[in-house]
User: Fold these one by one.
Assistant:
Number 1:
Amino acid sequence: MERPAWAPRSIDISVPSVSRIYDFYLGGSHNFEVDREAARRAMEFMPGLPKVMQANRAFMRRAVRFAAAEGVDQFLDIGSGIPTFGNVHEVARGARPGSRVVYVDHDPVAVAHSEAVLAGDDDAAVVAADLLKPREILASPQVRRLIDLNRPVALLLVAILHFVEDADDPYAAVAELSDALAPGSLLVLTHASYEGIPLPAERAGGAVDVYRDIRNPLIMRSREDIARFFKGYDMVEPGLVPMPRWRPEGSPEDEDPYAFSGFAGVGRTA
Amino acid sequence: MRAEPDGPEDRLRRFATIWSRAVFPVTSTSSTRPEFEAQLLPLARRLSELLRARAFDAAEARAVGAALVDAHCTDPEALARTLDCVDAYLVLYCGEDGDPEGLRARSARLQHAMAAGYAGALRARTLAEQEAIAQAALKAQGVVAEALHASEARFRAVFEGAAIGIGIADLEGNVLQVNDALMRMFGIADPTLGGRRATEWTHPDDAPQTWRLYDELVRGEREHYHVEKAFYRPDGTVLWTNLTVSLLRDADGTPQYQLALMEDTTERRLLNLRLRYEATHDALTGLPNRSFFFERLEKALNAGPGQRFGLCYLDLDGFKTVNDSLGHAAGDRLLVEVADRLQACATAPGEMVARLGGDEFVALTTGPDTRHEVDELAGRIMNALLAPISVDGRELTVRGSIGIVEGPAGERSPAEVLRSADITMYRAKSAGGNRFELADPEADARVITRHGLTTALPAALERGEFFIEYQPLVHLGDGSVRGAEALVRWLHPQHGVLGPDRFIPLAEHTGLIVPLGRWVLEQSVRQARAWRERYGETTAAGPLRINVNLSPCQLTHPGLVQDTVEILERAGVAPDALCLEVTESALIGADDDLLKPLRRLAEMGVDIALDDFGTGYSNLANLRRLPVSVLKLDRSFTQSMQRFPADPVDLKIVEGIVALAHSLDLAVTVEGVETGAQAEQLRILGCDTAQGWYYARPGPPDRLHDLALVDATA
């Protein structure tokens, strides 16, 4: 008689949520004062945090377009958060009409909001599930309805794995998801890291502490550790790089220095 | 659209580029700057047109401001930079040839309207997003609450519908909630259980650890425990439960509640008790049965130092007769009455009576003073049996034999004690019954040895533990060796060499005498052949013979004649080399059927000797019809001749027997000759052959060889 894995004991909007904080950084108002308060505290240490988020969004946009250009028309976006502008289904359909997208998040508010945004869209859906339980994701009615696992899928793990501690073995979860993907599938991934942040690690650590305080610890991993998520994948050029350097459309030199925090990469299954 | 260098279109684009460069760093868009510029270009065109339009279109200007919000310029800084940009460059790049004063005024009005439009759009977007996220939060809460509700409803259904009793109490033992099953078990309708705390639910049968476990649990030192526990119901009856108590902690791990799960085992326990009663009691008499008795005896024998036990083992005398003559139903009624009387004899603490089966009963007494208590107990039992028992209108006199074993605890096993009691009871019975006897270790040992020898016999024959000694038979007339009697011995691994008196009766009893006897015959005949090969077919005085004893059992065995013939033939020994000795008592009252095999053997030439003659009150007249050729006088006749002078009466008797024997053409052999005087006397009396220590003790076959040599040189 287990409570559904995704359902917390209660929704406590007095507790900050990483997806609403993310929305705030992106200039959205899908957030509450507790979220903004936490976001502002983190920004005291890393004022350029919104630029990191923007760089994430921009990378995701490029990666989705790349996937579409590769012929991929199915997208599984885990850790999708609060839908705002430039969502995967919009970008993907812009490049390849008819693309189907399943969003996955474990934040019930993000899921509820996504449901509202996606209402009436037959080719996109949201699943309330946890990255750490890949089987629940893969077996969900939404995935079974919209995603054909016998054809290539773009699996998006954008700005999510750095919220999973080693003790919960994110590598195993990624491996299990990867095992379910057909050859030619893509893994699209970004991850926070102390590498590339234009600040001393101690100062960036202040922002990390904020996430720890709100019980959503931010796990900064080295490039090497991040690269291990791509085990079994062939890296797409230019490999695992700072976000602005992944297939830039403009000049990376124009980007804000904060945009170079962390790493982004795309891998392709053999 | 072509843009002539420095034409209006080109200038418009340059304005849009400046604008996008100013604003892009403060937008949240995920677009690239060129994409962003492309988004701004139509807005720039609209501004350009608004600047030069004849009439000022405030609504359109507000729409351009609002469009900024749609392009994700939600940071007010984007508006500031936009207005800076419009203020500085719009007239310059898009004013064309208009009146500079008028254009500046128009630009100012444009900015005011754009700012208002932007603010309005941002406010609307903010409100919409706030509304959306609030709705999402609400909806999520609803979903979660629903899931929780469903989950709680399921839990409640389990709680209410469970067949096991469930109760929750705080750590002070205050009962907070119980389910229906628990209330049913206790037979109460009050969910507070009368406000009694868990610690008050004690019962005398609580195991010693029950409340220690409870204390450990409420102190948070133990997560759960499992006990069998009894409770008093309000009506005073007892509820037995399998009780599992678990500690419930809050999210921080602090102990908060105790959860009790209990299963009603009262019925099962009663059933177990009944089954146990049935398994431990005799159905006929209701007395404890053999297994129960053994349990108690074992306990008594394992009691601590200073503790003793006394056991009376009773077997009714002649019960079989009652059963046979009056029927089993009557026998059963007799046993029930005996059981009742016995029960009344053993009422003190530590005493018990049990029925082992059939007409065998035991009474047990335990404690430090069983030495005299057991005697009293036996006396009471004998007394209880004195009064006749009325069965089917008959007054039956019941007697019993009792074997008593008494001793300290910790020395013997139940089986040993019971065996001793059994042996002792048989001793009482063979002494005439209707009495009790006290166990005697020596008597036990004899019986036990006897029993041990009996069971060891078959293996002994297989392992070749038997051997044969030969005692020479000497002719009294010339002192020559005429043969030897074969005497079987058992070289027992523990007891050493045993004589035939120790084991032949046992072998008779078990039937082993037949194979053993055959073996003796084979060995002896083979020895006879060896002698004959060495000394020739005959000595000066006649053929060398081997005497072999035949037991009554062998005598009646149908294979006797054939076995004997085969053995003789196989050894190549003539029948006249063999003399079979049969005891006089074995032939008393023998009919023709019994005598037929002997007669057949005698006809073949085998001598038949009547052993132990004179002890069996045989009908002398009967001698005539027996196929006998030798009489062996019992040693009791010759014993008196060891003295000098011999008893004249004995002399007369022997003389008479010899005369009688000779008149019937029977030879006479005497046994037990120990002195020369004796030998001389017997020779004078006319005895033919003799054996005894005077000549030689029984010994290995080679000894006969020596004697024969002596004889040859004599």
Number 2:
Amino acid sequence: MTGAEFVMISLVPLVIGVLAAIACALPGNFLLLRRQALIGDAISHVVLPGIVVAFLLSGRVAAVPMMLGAGGAALVSVALIEAIRRLGRIEPGAAMGVVFTAMFAGGVLLLEQSAASGVHLDVQHALYGNLESLIWLDGHGWGALVDREALRGLPPELARMALVTLAVALFTGLLWRALVISTFDEGFARTLGLPVRALSLALVAVAAMAAVAAFDAVGSIIVIAMFICPPAAARLMTDRMGGQVAWSLGFATLSAVLGYVLAGYGPLWLGHQSAVSAAGMIATVSGLILALAALFGPRRRGVAAV
Amino acid sequence: MALELVREKLIDQNPLAIRGLTVSYAEKPAVFSVDVSYRAGQMTAIVGPNGAGKSTLLKAALGIVRPISGRVTAFGAPLDRARARIAYVPQRASVDWEFPARVIDVVMMGLYRDLGLLGRVRPHHRARAMQSLARVGMESFATRQIGQLSGGQQQRVFLARALAQGADLYLLDEPFAGVDAATERAIIGVLKGLRDDGKTVVAVHHDLATVPAYFDRAFLLNITAIAEGPVAEVMTEANLRAAYGGRLGPARQAV
């Protein structure tokens, strides 16, 4: 592959993949330690009908209506969970499970029945995004990176994902100390006067924002994987919070790059004709990294140096 | 003169004053209409049977759980204005010790009010944390991962974190639960040292036998307040029977 081909076809998907992985892995570290890791999974399920409805109403795939739709769906899910829990008198976990899967199923049906299917949003898109289609038509070689005209032709998903990743990074960086204390010891955090509840809500909101933005570009498979796999693997590499986050970012980046390359070229190396889904391969790589960390990580439970 | 008396009564200057505190989980009250003031420069034990609401009382007084009703003041001010003067030591089992942190990282959390969100950690901050660790005999464990510590060592780390806060009022939830004898001695030594420096210590305590040796005052609780005062006056047969009912058995023999 020449430089020009790489810039046009692979550069943007690669960068978006890395940004999406990082945006999800960052809050994933805290969600994992708060035993809320599945919230990422839940969010990516619940928001689907909201995104579809937003698409149907606005007629286009745009950031603002999608975020509004996703937020609306999240509110509906909270109300539904509460209603089922009260009326059915069942435990919250079961109520959540019912609502998440039902809303995701409803979203899929909505997609199939609506004009949305076949246009741009379809079930496949929802599951594993359209990473490969985010090509940069004006990217004729590396020179395009400094060519203002060519830069204007960049897929809008790139700027959106970059902005969201920056917001997530700022949130984590600025509130780091408060997030760490309230994650480790909520009661103590409260006695320090920290707004524990607001912090917890903000963390979930930031995770939701990352999930929705990543969902658009890379689909829900990668979102679920990136919330859990890099932070979980990172925990097995170090005993410090800062170290864990650094490792998780490294693993997220590695998964995105390696997954994209393997999906694009792996099948060809093996003699097959077509590439496989990049999102699926990125998620697979992140899972393999977690498996390796679980087998060989220096800080596995019970093997830490005493 | 009369008016002054009324005013003094209204604003309790004690390190911690609780008025009409009621907390309920589900429909059942865990703590009901409790009035109590903890005296400055004294060590007070909160004593009562299992399920008496001892931990709940502390948590509600600190705003960790939300009471149905009641008013709490600390040093004569609303709780939120006195936060800097209060240190809380939660039950050891209330956190996940597999958390990726070293001993020193946990103790540094006690400096949050000085450091704020983005304040730089300076040498004197680190020195204060190390001094706090030294006071509980844990300075050589500073870089150890917290999951590798024994229960007693974890409890000492929690106490060191509270010491780093440099507070005037120390509230401890079962500080002696599941710790070895050496740790119990170390902790009681530190707490008595705080008291001798004029600080106030209030601890939820489950071992009736050690109350007279460890504490100056006792607060007997079983959902409602039974008695508060000097240990000898509070730990009477009648009061204990009122708090523990038929469950006293071995506990009474120990006193």
Number 3:
Amino acid sequence: MFKNNLKIAWRNLLKNKSLFIMNTLGLGLGIASCLIIMLFVIDELSYDRYNEKADEIVNVVFRAKINGEEIKEGAVMAPVGKTLTQEFPEVLDATRIRQIGTPKITIDNQSYREDRFAFVDANFFNVFTLPIIEGNPKNPLQEPNTVVISRATAEKFFGASDAIGQLFHLDGEERPYRVTGVIEEVPQNSHFHFDIFASIEGLDEAKSDSWFGGDFFTYLLLKKGSDYKNLETKLPYILEKYMGSGMQEQMGVPYEEFTKENQLGFRIFPLTDIHLYSDNSAYSQLEQGGDIKYVYIFSAIALFMLLIACINFMNLATATAAKRAKEVGIRKVLGSNKNQLVSQFLSESFIATLCAMALATILVFVSLPFYNELSGKELQLDFLLQPVVLLSLLVLTFLISILAGGYPAFFLSSFKPIAALKNKFLGGNNNKGIRSGLVVFQFVISAGLILATLVVNQQMNYIQNKDIGYDRDQLLVLREAYLLGDDRDAFKNELLKNPKVASITNSASIPAGSTDNYMSQVYINGEFSRRMPVFNIDENYIATMGMELVAGRNFSTEFGTDSTNVIINQTAANVLGFGADALGKIVTDGGGDHTVIGVIKDFHFKSLHQKIDPLFLFYRPFGGLIVKAKSSDMSSLIADTNTLWNDFNTGETFGYTVLDESFRQTYVTEQKMGSLLNIFALLTIFVACLGLFGLMTFTAEQRFKEIGIRKVLGSSVSEIVTMLSKDFLKLVFLSFFIAFPMGYYLMNRWLEGFAYRIEIDWTVMAMAALITLIIAFVTVGWKSFNAATMNPITALKDE
Amino acid sequence: MIQIQNLKKSFRTEEVETLALNNVNFSVEEGEFAAIMGPSGCGKSTLLNIIGMLDNPTEGSYKFAGHEVGGLKERQRTELRKGNLGFVFQSFNLIDELTVFENVELPLIYLKMGKSERREKVMKVLERMKIAHREKHFPHQLSGGQQQRVAIARAVVTNPKLILADEPTGNLDSKNGIEVMNLLTELNQEGTTIVMVTHSDRDSHYAHRVINLFDGQVVTESQNRAMGAMI
């Protein structure tokens, strides 16, 4: 029976080739999108799961609100891990990561800059599952100045020779580091990616017992089955116990008083939540993570794509039911019961789904490299070949068959045999209401996605074009110019002679990308006010960056005292209560008293997700160089600068960034998600239109004779096109009333993540409506036009 | 085999109720060949549908082989139809997507018969209908007469007790029509009961008895003097 069903199903599908192609294509695109999104979602959810103890490892982070400043830091003070292990029996172990930027490593006169370098505790490899493949597998980092490196780094540093026991020097340290272990690369789905793990034993600050300041990403290994939330509730006690005594000294007030007006606390993130749930601000995590929001958004898109494709299948199958009525009648007369018919129609949807699944797999194979490029992921195709995935695909095929074919199967098999044999049932008009409802649903999703795409694109456009308070174009950043040492000024002067250079400033305080900005604790009249970011600049900074002073003066070499003066931004003037009267005011930080000599117009030095913070700019001309080019031809300036760098024979590698590029990188997640949204929105509306096209084809066939008669009686082509299209366009129009309020609400939620954002007004919705209507009209209009321009004789001869 | 008493069938639309059959009484004995005749709209096909258990009467009794079947549910009617009844239609009603062999095989599949037994039975009946050489053809590749022979093959492949023929020669030329009627007569002579609806006087002469319907009522019943008088 099953074989027979499949055979008939196959012949039926072949007989209605155009319907079959439309169904397979729609379902195939739906499934392919769904699979790609599934790969994305599975990858996002798999972060840090490679650790055998993933469920027992948690990350302690610091959260505070001090004098109105919200502090979210992923790193905590040095003694936190050790203390929690001692205080709570459920904490079995603690391990830390300390980053030190991009140290210089020297091996036999060859030097390397390694940004994937971290100091870690000796027990690090007992907590995280990164097996030692060569060297000491138990305690490779027990001693100071020992390192574990990745296989690729071992090959880079030491070539074919055995890395174990080899030495390298870290800039500024006399004692060499010895390789005691080699690991494979840290998996892609990890929240950190270091190539060199050095023993923290030699790091003095790691031994500090200060509860004020510290920069250690701290992980706890909990007892199996213990509840991290329960542990979290006990942490305020720890803060009070260990911070309390030092508070008076550090902040000038007792702990109780300080915490009355301010909030201090630790929070705990399960290891497997770090990637998706961490705060994405600058100091919150080791690497820019993902966002659970996007996991939800794309999962919803995948589901909608699949539903839209299934709806096409349902609508086309029920609309063309008349064609199958006779067959249903005969089978019933010959003794088929309803279940047998249902199973036969389900076989058809199974075959169509199987074909669609094959098409989808091919599409995934072809598109995955492009998708990876677009999304920045490294999704692998071999993932699809795992038995569990293959089994899931088969189950998915069954589920989609039932979802898409279930309703038509029950609908078709419920025909009364006599009526079916005589074609006396209402045919295509049957269940028109349900069909219309499903079309509305499809266009609610399509119009909603178009609205979402427009809003995302507008917001991205807004970010790109917003006045950010400085001119980010044509700026070449040499953040590591300090490596030139005493030659830096000579290098700068030489570079200034290049006619392509407009100006140069001596600073590594960069408003976008990697920067040397730091936080300073600020006091006013001896009382702690808040922490503030600090920029170290020279007298050329403001002009080179295209910033604007709104009051006072710039730093100048003519004033010998400028090293103790400060320029503040407008927000700082407001936050510190100076208002328009900031000039001459005294502020104090760890470096002593500073007089405010200028107020700079607010500029964005963090992402537009965050409001502009108060900022201090000190006259400290050291660090890197920022070069303003005269023209937009940056590549030739970069080449010249590289040549000049090499001429100075420092042995250091030339490194640079282009500020505009760094700025763009800040929004790379949104850009990538925006691009993906564009593509999936297009695919969704394409699949929805495929369904509309199918229904239109059917309607044109059904009204073939009517069109002929109308034409004979004098109807024009446009009248017929209008007659055929208007029913569908009404449905599309109706969908806007659901799509836009929903879209408005959801996109506003997304925009809330930006401190600086666009407002969704009626023009965006009008645009989305227009685009949807045009696409839908082209779809139905094309088919209607074909029907309207046929020779009426053909239709009437059919009789 | 068939006993019909006070049978009524009405169709109700939103505005009007139409009485298609009104107090119909007759019976058909096992082995009989009965023809139902009457003008268009007199209720012939409605009666045949009820006899064929494709529909239920509104009122009255219909006994098939001694069992009341007038009030059965669709599922029960389906079960009873399988193997007991064979249908031959004016428009053949073959499934276009199935070959000759597969069309004839279909009722046996629904009877859950094994594959080899099915093959044997189908080939036997196709040979008998002289259409075995076309077993792999699809309906649209056959002439009308050939299609009707396939339809008859399909109707008899399960050895039904009763064959119901609804204008079996209506779409055929006279030569093919005679051929079909001869086949039905042959089947009847072998013991199969046949009830046939027809407009054709000639075809009605093949039957033992002619039941005339008019406005949903049996108006006359007449016995044919000689079976197969026109042969």
